[in-house]
Amino acid sequence: MSDVFSTNNEGCKIAELDEIAMILMGISDNMFSSPSVSVSSRGTYFLQGESITASENTIKSIDFCCQRGYFADAFTLARKYRDDVIQYVFVAQVVENMQRLDDEEFKKLYGTELTVENLIQAVELEMSMLAAGTRKSAADLAVELWVYDMLEEEKYFKERKQYFDTSKYLAQLVKDENIKQLNEIYLKDIWTKTDRILNNYVHGNGRKYIMDNYSLYGNYQERKQKLIETVRNITSIFISILSVALPNKIQSSDYRDDMEFGITPREGCQYWVMPMIVEFMDEYFPKIHPDLLQFLEENNKYGMKMLMADYAK
Known about the structure:
Elements: H1 2-8, H2 15-33, E1 36-40, E2 43-47, H3 50-68, H4 71-97, H5 103-110, H6 116-132, H7 138-147, H8 157-163, H9 166-173, H10 177-202, H11 207-211, H12 220-245, H13 254-260, H14 275-288, H15 292-299
Antiparallel strand pairs: 1-2
Helix pairs in contact: 2-3, 3-4, 4-9, 4-10, 4-12, 10-12
C-alpha cells in the first residue's frame, strides 16, 4: 500500500500536464480549507476537495497514457476529466446556493439588533430548514442524492436523467446571468470544439480514433500537442466558470496564512488569486478571447483580482 501512496504523490512527466495537476491541487486545497456544507435529513456532509483531487489523478492517468502513445485512452480520460470538473462546479454551486434565511426574514424574526443569541437561533433555524428540505428545489434534492450516494438507485432514474449529464450541468449553471454571458460570448466556441474532439474519441467516430491507441500510429508529437491543447482548454473552461460561480475556490492562501500566523493581513490580499492560476490565465485566456479576463475580473462576486496587472502595483 505504501508503494501506491508513493506513486500517487509523483507528478506528471509531461510538464504541461503537471502544470494543470498542480493547479488542481491548489484548488483542492482551497476546497478542504473552505468546504461547502450539505445538510439534509440524511445528515451533514462537507463537500471538500476530494472530487478535484480525483480529477488531479485523472490528469496523471492521462500523462501515463500519453507517455506510451495510448492517445485514444488519453482522450477518453480527458472526457472524464471535463465531465467531472464541470459536475463539481454544478454540485458545489447548488449546495452553496440552497435557500436559507434572507435579510428580510432575519429582521422579521429577530429585528435589527445582532446578538450572539440571535445568530445562534438563526443558524439553528437554517439547519432545521435545510434538514426538512421544505425550500429545496428539484435540483437541490437531486444533488443531495448524489452527495449521499443514492443517485445510482433505479428509483432515481428521473433525477439522473434530468440533472446528471454534462449538458445538464451547463444548462443549470447558465441560469446565472453572468455564467450565461460567459458561455455565450467567451466560451461557446472552445466548448463546442473541445466537445466534438472528446465525443469523437469516446464514441469511436472513425477508424482513426480507435487506431490512435497504437503508439506508432501517426506523428507522436502532433498527437501529444493536440491532447495537451484539449486538456488545457478543458482546464480554461473549468477555471472560467469556477471564477464566476465560486471565486473563493481560486483564492490564494495569503489571507489565511496571515490570519493563522496572527499578523494583520496584507491590504487587499483577500482578493488575490493563486499565482499559478493568474499565470495560467494570463498566458492562455487571451487566446480564447481577448476580453475574457476583463469579464472575469468585473463579474466575479467577490472582486477577485484576475489580471496580471493587478499584481504589478
